[in-house]
Design brief:
Blueprint (H helix, E strand, L loop, with lengths): L3 E4 L3 E6 L5 E6 L1 H11 L4 E8 L2 H12 L3 E8 L6 E6 L5 E6 L19 H5 L9
Parallel strand pairs: 1-4, 2-6, 4-5
Antiparallel strand pairs: 2-3, 6-7
Length: about 130
Protein backbone atom coordinates (compact mmCIF):
# COMPACT_ATOMS: atom_id res chain seq x y z
CA UNK A 1 0.00 0.00 0.00
CA UNK A 2 1.48 3.30 -1.11
CA UNK A 3 1.47 6.27 1.24
CA UNK A 4 2.10 8.73 -1.59
CA UNK A 5 0.85 8.67 -5.17
CA UNK A 6 2.75 10.64 -7.78
CA UNK A 7 0.84 11.31 -10.98
CA UNK A 8 2.28 12.82 -14.13
CA UNK A 9 5.11 12.59 -16.59
CA UNK A 10 8.03 10.26 -16.80
CA UNK A 11 10.64 10.88 -19.47
CA UNK A 12 14.31 10.90 -20.31
CA UNK A 13 16.38 14.07 -19.97
CA UNK A 14 19.18 13.98 -22.55
CA UNK A 15 21.61 16.47 -21.00
CA UNK A 16 24.59 17.85 -22.91
CA UNK A 17 27.21 19.73 -20.95
CA UNK A 18 29.45 22.48 -22.28
CA UNK A 19 31.71 19.76 -23.72
CA UNK A 20 28.77 18.51 -25.79
CA UNK A 21 28.81 15.04 -24.25
CA UNK A 22 25.22 13.90 -23.82
CA UNK A 23 24.08 11.80 -20.85
CA UNK A 24 20.60 10.32 -20.34
CA UNK A 25 18.84 10.70 -16.98
CA UNK A 26 15.45 9.54 -15.80
CA UNK A 27 13.24 12.59 -15.58
CA UNK A 28 9.79 13.94 -15.01
CA UNK A 29 9.25 15.58 -11.64
CA UNK A 30 6.46 13.24 -10.46
CA UNK A 31 8.50 10.13 -11.30
CA UNK A 32 11.60 11.62 -9.66
CA UNK A 33 9.60 12.41 -6.51
CA UNK A 34 8.25 8.84 -6.37
CA UNK A 35 11.81 7.47 -6.61
CA UNK A 36 13.15 9.92 -4.06
CA UNK A 37 10.43 9.06 -1.56
CA UNK A 38 11.00 5.34 -2.02
CA UNK A 39 14.75 5.79 -1.48
CA UNK A 40 13.94 7.60 1.78
CA UNK A 41 11.74 4.72 2.92
CA UNK A 42 8.33 6.21 2.15
CA UNK A 43 6.09 3.88 0.20
CA UNK A 44 5.23 5.51 -3.13
CA UNK A 45 3.45 4.68 -6.36
CA UNK A 46 3.64 6.30 -9.76
CA UNK A 47 0.73 6.84 -12.15
CA UNK A 48 1.71 7.80 -15.67
CA UNK A 49 2.11 6.54 -19.21
CA UNK A 50 5.20 5.38 -21.09
CA UNK A 51 5.67 4.22 -24.65
CA UNK A 52 6.16 0.58 -25.58
CA UNK A 53 9.75 1.33 -26.54
CA UNK A 54 13.21 0.72 -25.10
CA UNK A 55 13.25 4.11 -23.35
CA UNK A 56 9.91 3.40 -21.66
CA UNK A 57 10.96 -0.08 -20.56
CA UNK A 58 14.18 1.33 -19.05
CA UNK A 59 12.20 3.97 -17.15
CA UNK A 60 9.82 1.30 -15.85
CA UNK A 61 12.80 -0.73 -14.66
CA UNK A 62 14.25 2.34 -12.93
CA UNK A 63 11.00 2.84 -11.02
CA UNK A 64 10.97 -0.82 -9.98
CA UNK A 65 14.64 -0.77 -9.00
CA UNK A 66 13.99 2.22 -6.77
CA UNK A 67 11.10 0.44 -5.03
CA UNK A 68 8.23 2.41 -6.56
CA UNK A 69 4.85 0.69 -7.01
CA UNK A 70 4.37 0.62 -10.80
CA UNK A 71 0.86 -0.84 -10.87
CA UNK A 72 -0.43 2.56 -12.05
CA UNK A 73 1.88 2.80 -15.06
CA UNK A 74 0.17 2.50 -18.43
CA UNK A 75 2.06 1.46 -21.55
CA UNK A 76 0.93 3.01 -24.81
CA UNK A 77 1.34 0.75 -27.82
CA UNK A 78 2.02 3.48 -30.40
CA UNK A 79 3.12 6.75 -28.79
CA UNK A 80 6.80 7.08 -27.92
CA UNK A 81 8.21 7.86 -24.51
CA UNK A 82 9.15 11.54 -24.35
CA UNK A 83 12.82 12.53 -24.46
CA UNK A 84 13.84 16.09 -23.64
CA UNK A 85 17.11 17.52 -24.95
CA UNK A 86 18.74 19.87 -22.48
CA UNK A 87 21.97 21.83 -22.72
CA UNK A 88 24.00 23.32 -19.91
CA UNK A 89 25.70 26.68 -20.29
CA UNK A 90 29.12 27.45 -18.75
CA UNK A 91 27.42 28.53 -15.50
CA UNK A 92 25.57 25.20 -15.30
CA UNK A 93 22.13 26.66 -16.04
CA UNK A 94 19.77 24.37 -17.97
CA UNK A 95 18.27 25.26 -21.32
CA UNK A 96 15.48 23.05 -22.63
CA UNK A 97 16.20 22.79 -26.34
CA UNK A 98 13.64 20.40 -27.81
CA UNK A 99 11.77 17.11 -27.56
CA UNK A 100 12.56 14.04 -29.63
CA UNK A 101 10.30 13.62 -32.64
CA UNK A 102 8.82 16.54 -34.54
CA UNK A 103 6.07 19.12 -34.08
CA UNK A 104 3.38 16.50 -34.75
CA UNK A 105 4.68 13.85 -32.32
CA UNK A 106 2.25 12.92 -29.56
CA UNK A 107 4.07 11.43 -26.58
CA UNK A 108 2.85 8.66 -24.30
CA UNK A 109 3.02 10.80 -21.14
CA UNK A 110 0.25 12.99 -22.55
CA UNK A 111 -2.03 10.01 -23.24
CA UNK A 112 -2.72 8.72 -19.72
CA UNK A 113 -6.21 7.22 -19.67
CA UNK A 114 -7.87 8.20 -16.40
CA UNK A 115 -10.54 5.53 -16.86
CA UNK A 116 -7.76 2.91 -16.73
CA UNK A 117 -6.29 4.11 -13.43
CA UNK A 118 -6.88 1.46 -10.81
CA UNK A 119 -9.23 2.85 -8.17
CA UNK A 120 -7.72 0.41 -5.66
CA UNK A 121 -4.38 2.18 -5.98
CA UNK A 122 -5.96 5.52 -5.19
CA UNK A 123 -7.93 4.07 -2.29
CA UNK A 124 -4.70 2.92 -0.62
CA UNK A 125 -3.76 6.54 0.15
CA UNK A 126 -7.21 7.86 1.06
CA UNK A 127 -7.90 7.45 4.75
CA UNK A 128 -11.15 5.71 5.56
CA UNK A 129 -13.82 7.95 7.01
CA UNK A 130 -14.23 7.58 10.70
CA UNK A 131 -17.73 7.06 12.08
CA UNK A 132 -19.63 10.29 12.77
Amino acid sequence: MAKVLCLGEILIDQIAGVSGVQVAYSGGAPANVACGLAKLGTSSAFIGCIGKDQVGIELLEALKTNGVDISGVQIHANAPTRQVYVSLDPEGDRHFDRFSGDATTIFADSLLQIVCVKIELIQTVIPEKQGS
